[in-house]
Amino acid sequence: PFGGTGNNIFNPAAAGVAFAIVAFPSMVFAYPIPRAPLPIFPGAELATVSSPLFTLGVGGVPSYDLISMALGNVPGPMGATNTLVLLACLFYLISRRTLEWEIPVFFLLTTALISFSFPVLEIGRVESMLYEMMNGLLLFGAVFLLGDPVTRPKRRWANIFYAILAGVVVMIFRRIGRIEEELVFAILLMNTLV
Question: What is the pTM assigned to this prediction?
Fold first, then answer.
């Protein structure tokens, strides 16, 4: 129903995450506390906490500093919290020409410009922008989801327009949305426009 391998209409990873968010929101957004011991015996409770993105969404300042955010010592989606590793992946994929540079660069520039222009925190525009850029699936999506060669546009100018519009849609969803990880829904919406 989605076009088959190589002919996907929607990004399969984004569609899977969106389904999990809609079907099991309490399980998807229950993140283990970083470096907390995991339960050994079945049935034992896992200590969970909300992510800094949730805190930003309700207007609070995350209790983690920017260094912890950059190093990934914060609760959040698996593989999406370590900003430095994701940036290294981005540079590697661009240098190997596995990823077209236009999509992640223009997407991140758009989201950074919007978050700088309309900060969610009153602690300073730059700090507010950094907190917002290092939260949730934003950087992960820029590196691994938006540039999917099957579901993105094929021409350079279309890629740039796609990335800018995706950045605007994500930031609108973050400002008015009620779900923590809006990026996957923005990607699915953008896939319909391709």
Answer: 0.85
